[in-house]
């Protein structure tokens, strides 16, 4: 019963911790490696126009998350304009409006996007509604002819689309294509013709507009691709070459034939898009993304605490890991340490002193303290006053070591002040008792054990990855807790018991 | 030697002892009964079990003034902390020399030194967790001559592990020069396993070595016959009902004149007894777990132990 309860509790903790961890890694893209850097693209659309002293409305399409990019931050900059963002037939649109204004107006839309790993293409979208192309008379004739001709030598939608695009881009176009393209065969006209012909043959298609995020640009050009619905997903085609697939650097901005900006109540509309590239610690963009996607998670996280408190927690969050190490060493290995959690506190002190100096100073303090403690033994003092005297002596020794080492130019000596003196005092007291009761060997081996665990704990504390993981993924503590709880019911042998009981089997097998 | 070998031998490891035996069978509320020797003594006396006579108790420092008056009529006695552990803080006075007290190893102790020792006991120097303690002054056991040849200075005692009222393993702990008269194995005493069926000693261990002779006296350790053996087993078995503790170590001394006396009880008895017996406890404990419901009274439990837990031929 107890066992089942424990296993359930531990699984619950494991599950909860892992779920939150995976959510942060997979959905919010929290980096696992503290050195991860992201390429952050800043895209700015500058919209300027002349107002005519009439109500002004500026509708601008704005980008959303795509399989290759994720929007981590966006800003809308304007003076005295009201702003609404809404979804319009699958696109996002920002609408600025103002009652009455005049003169030159400039609005800015600024977004920060971050490239992400490609998700799998397995989207199962419902087939979209196909708009009637509205071909009539000779146009219908021309469209049917083109469809029939391409249809004879294409196997599937993919090859049909490629063939169609090539046909429409041929120079000079054949007469059917020329009719469909109209007088001026501009790139938009080609895409429009392609969408219509595809609609006529029962294939859904739409244009997608966006920019290439390949290099920094002052005046980026919007390019349009053709998206064709095929078997539950949209395939993209280069509208000139007919080749399938968009480059990963293509940021799809909006879909449809509408222009980027729709202005009413103004004239001389100018739109300029500029792109700049920044590097950023991946963790920062993950935090930004959390702010947009799941504000509650960020609101109730360590990251909202004052920086000073955060740095305290950076250390405190390591302690459970240290206690897990202690549990492993004591209950699984069977190593004795002075004081249950003394090695953790010593390891924390080592963070300030560095390992080698830490060990040297720890040994120095314990040796001096022990000498004093053995001297006190002759005076036959009562327990508490004796402990208090040792504590006082420990602090005096710390001061002396600091002062002497500072004089010698060894700055590491100053950090001895961070040693946990009460713990040191208790260590000295316990060690002297073990020394008297069980001999110097037992006392030294226990001290060495404590030091070993402390050093290993320190190495773990000092690991950048460990520090990164526990601070940005504090839910991992639930896993630590689960493992610790399970170890609480570990009833197997300790490794050191192999040595302790070795004579048991020796005598048996030897026979007597 | 591997973990598998330990498992095959049925050795009880400390993790399993804690998780499956002491935590499960020893209710925390009964611990004070065994951790406080004064309470154990009172309990045992009420149940009619023999314990060393209590000469006096010092509870607060003020009472130390009357210590000498209290000890006036006593030639020899033992001072021990009521809640001491591991045999620490025990002072054995074997006689007097004028004003001075003479300890077992012959050194003289002044009344002032004795008072200081009692003060240390009161301050909690020897007790678990350093809590203030009481000092017990009690009868000094004159041990049975059977152990004369195999102990050095102190008093040998017999440890019997009792599980759910069934004695499962036993050893006799013999003080040595190294252990300074103390009977704790980790302090250097010799432990000799005892055949539960007959009460004869088996081989002995001393600091993880297998011995056949006492390291100080050189006398044979194996084959000693412990007198009153069935009575000892019954006494130990009775302690289970007395305390309500399922997994219990019972320490008994054999007094030359008064026979078996209960010295102390232990709710977390050590595991070295397995080395002294060259047998694992776990198999025996498992056997008792399966059978103890059928064993109605002390007689049946002792008979079961003597029948089942004789050493393998």
Q: If you had to describe this structure to a student in words, what would you say it looks like?
A:
The complex is a heterodimer of chains A (512) and B (313). Chain A contains 18 helices and ten strands. Chain A has 512 residues and is an alpha+beta fold. Chain A has a domain at 311-502. The model of chain A is unreliable at 508-512 (pLDDT under 50). Chain B has helices spanning 3-8, 14-25, 31-35, 37-46, 67-71, 111-122, 229-243, 273-277, 281-291, 298-308, and strands at 54-58, 77-81, 91-97, 100-103, 108-109, 135-138, 157-163, 166-174, 190-194, 201-206, 209-211, 247-255, 259-266. The chains are: A alpha+beta (512), B alpha+beta (313). The A-B interface holds A 331, 334, 380, 382-384, 437-438, 488-494, 497-508, 512 and B 1-3, 5-7, 9, 11, 13-16, 19-20, 86, 88, 116, 119-120, 123-125, 130, 186-187, 203, 205, 208-210, 271, 274-275, 278-280.
Identify the notable features of this structure and list them briefly.
heterodimer, A: 512 residues, alpha+beta, six-stranded antiparallel beta sheet, four-stranded antiparallel beta sheet, 18 helices, disordered C terminus, B: 313 residues, seven-stranded antiparallel beta sheet, globular
Mean pLDDT of chain A: 84
Low-confidence stretches of chain A: 508-512
Helical proportion of chain B, percent range: 25-40%
Major sheet description of chain A: 6 strands, antiparallel
What is the strand and helix layout of this fold?
The complex is a heterodimer of chains A (512) and B (313).
Chain A: H1 2-27, E1 37-62, E2 69-77, E3 82-88, E4 91-115, H2 137-152, H3 157-169, H4 175-181, H5 187-200, E5 205-212, E6 223-230, E7 233-237, E8 250-255, E9 261-264, E10 266-281, H6 282-293, H7 295-299, H8 307-316, H9 319-333, H10 342-353, H11 355-377, H12 383-407, H13 421-438, H14 440-461, H15 464-472, H16 476-487, H17 495-500, H18 502-510
Antiparallel strand pairs in A: 1-4, 1-9, 1-10, 2-4, 3-4, 5-6, 5-8, 6-7
Chain B: H1 3-8, H2 14-25, H3 31-35, H4 37-46, E1 54-58, H5 67-71, E2 77-81, E3 91-97, E4 100-103, E5 108-109, H6 111-122, E6 135-138, E7 157-163, E8 166-174, E9 190-194, E10 201-206, E11 209-211, H7 229-243, E12 247-255, E13 259-266, H8 273-277, H9 281-291, H10 298-308
Antiparallel strand pairs in B: 1-6, 2-3, 2-6, 3-4, 4-5, 7-8, 7-12, 8-9, 9-10, 10-11, 12-13
């Amino acid at each position: 019963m107890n066992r089942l309860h424990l296993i359930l509790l531990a699984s619950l903790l494991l599950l909860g911790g892992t779920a939150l961890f995976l959510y942060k890694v997979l959905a919010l893209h929290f980096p696992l490696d503290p050195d991860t850097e992201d390429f952050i693209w800043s895209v700015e659309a500058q919209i300027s126009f002349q107002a005519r002293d009439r109500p002004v409305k500026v509708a601008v399409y704005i980008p959303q998350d795509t399989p290759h990019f994720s929007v981590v931050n966006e800003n809308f900059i304007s003076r005295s304009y009201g702003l609404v963002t809404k979804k319009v037939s699958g696109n996002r649109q920002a609408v600025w409006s103002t009652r009455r204004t005049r003169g030159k107006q400039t609005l800015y839309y600024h977004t920060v996007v971050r490239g992400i790993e490609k998700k799998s293409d397995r989207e199962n979208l419902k087939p979209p509604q196909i708009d009637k192309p509205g071909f009539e008379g000779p146009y219908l004739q021309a469209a049917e002819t083109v469809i029939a001709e391409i249809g004879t030598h294409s196997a599937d939608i993919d090859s049909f689309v490629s063939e169609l695009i090539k046909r429409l881009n041929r120079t000079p176009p054949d007469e059917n294509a020329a009719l469909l393209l109209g007088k001026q065969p501009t790139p938009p006209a080609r895409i429009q013709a392609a969408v219509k012909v595809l609609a006529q043959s029962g294939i859904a298609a739409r244009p997608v507009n966006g920019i290439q995020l390949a290099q920094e640009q002052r005046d980026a050009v919007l390019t349009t691709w053709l998206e064709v619905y095929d078997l539950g997903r949209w395939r993209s085609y280069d509208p000139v070459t007919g080749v399938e697939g968009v480059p990963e650097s293509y940021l799809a901005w909006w879909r449809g034939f509408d222009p980027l900006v729709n202005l009413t109540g103004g004239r001389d509309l100018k739109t300029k898009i500029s792109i700049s590239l920044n590097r950023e610690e991946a963790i920062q963009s993950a935090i930004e993304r959390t702010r947009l996607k799941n504000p509650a998670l960020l609101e109730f996280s360590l990251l909202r605490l004052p920086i000073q408190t955060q740095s305290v927690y950076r250390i405190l969050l390591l302690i459970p890991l240290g206690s897990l190490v202690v549990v492993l060493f004591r209950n699984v290995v069977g190593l004795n340490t002075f004081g249950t959690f003394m090695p953790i506190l010593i390891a924390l002190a080592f963070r300030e002193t560095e390992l080698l100096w830490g060990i040297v100073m720890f040994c120095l303090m314990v040796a001096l303290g022990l000498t004093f403690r053995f001297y006190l033994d002759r005076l036959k003092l009562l327990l508490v006053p004796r402990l208090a005297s040792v504590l006082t002596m420990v602090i005096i020794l710390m001061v002396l070591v600091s002062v002497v080492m500072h004089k010698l130019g060894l700055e590491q000596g100053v950090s001895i002040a961070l040693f946990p003196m009460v713990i040191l005092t208790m260590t000295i007291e316990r060690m002297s008792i073990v020394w008297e009761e069980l001999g110097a060997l037992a006392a030294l081996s226990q001290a060495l054990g404590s030091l070993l665990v402390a050093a290993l704990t320190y190495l773990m504390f000092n690991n950048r990855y460990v520090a990164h993981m526990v601070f940005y993924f504090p839910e991992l503590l639930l896993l630590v807790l689960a493992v610790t709880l399970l170890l609480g019911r570990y009833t197997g042998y300790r490794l050191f018991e192999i040595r302790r009981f070795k004579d048991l089997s020796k005598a048996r097998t030897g026979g007597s | 030697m591997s973990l598998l070998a330990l498992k095959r031998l049925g050795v009880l490891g400390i993790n399993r002892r804690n998780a499956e035996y002491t935590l499960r069978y020893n209710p925390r509320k009964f611990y004070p009964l065994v951790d406080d020797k004064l309470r154990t003594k009172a309990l045992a006396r009420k149940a009619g079990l023999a314990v060393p006579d209590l000469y006096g108790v010092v509870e607060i420092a003020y009472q130390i003034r009357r210590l000498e008056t209290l000890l006036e009529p006593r030639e020899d006695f033992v001072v021990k902390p009521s809640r001491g552990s591991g045999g620490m803080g025990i002072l054995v006075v074997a006689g007097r020399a004028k004003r001075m007290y003479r300890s077992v190893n012959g050194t003289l102790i002044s009344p002032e030194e004795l008072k200081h020792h009692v003060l240390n006991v009161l301050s909690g120097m020897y007790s678990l967790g350093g809590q203030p303690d009481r000092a017990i002054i009690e009868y000094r056991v004159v041990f049975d001559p059977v152990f004369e040849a195999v102990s050095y200075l102190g008093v040998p005692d017999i440890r019997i592990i009792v599980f759910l009222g069934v004695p499962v393993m036993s050893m006799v702990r013999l003080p040595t020069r190294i252990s300074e008269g103390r009977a704790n194995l980790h302090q250097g005493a010799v432990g000799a396993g005892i055949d539960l069926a007959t009460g004869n000693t088996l081989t002995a261990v001393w600091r993880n070595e297998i011995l056949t002779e006492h390291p100080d006296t050189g006398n044979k350790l194996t084959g000693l016959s412990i007198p009153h053996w069935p009575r000892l087993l019954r006494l130990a078995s009775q302690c289970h009902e007395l305390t309500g503790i399922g997994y219990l170590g019972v320490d008994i001394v054999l007094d030359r004149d008064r026979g078996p006396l209960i010295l102390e009880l232990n709710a977390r008895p050590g595991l070295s007894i397995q080395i002294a017996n060259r047998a694992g406890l776990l198999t025996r404990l498992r056997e008792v777990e399966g059978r103890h419901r059928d064993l109605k009274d002390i007689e049946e439990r002792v008979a079961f132990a003597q029948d089942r837990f004789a050493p393998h031929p």
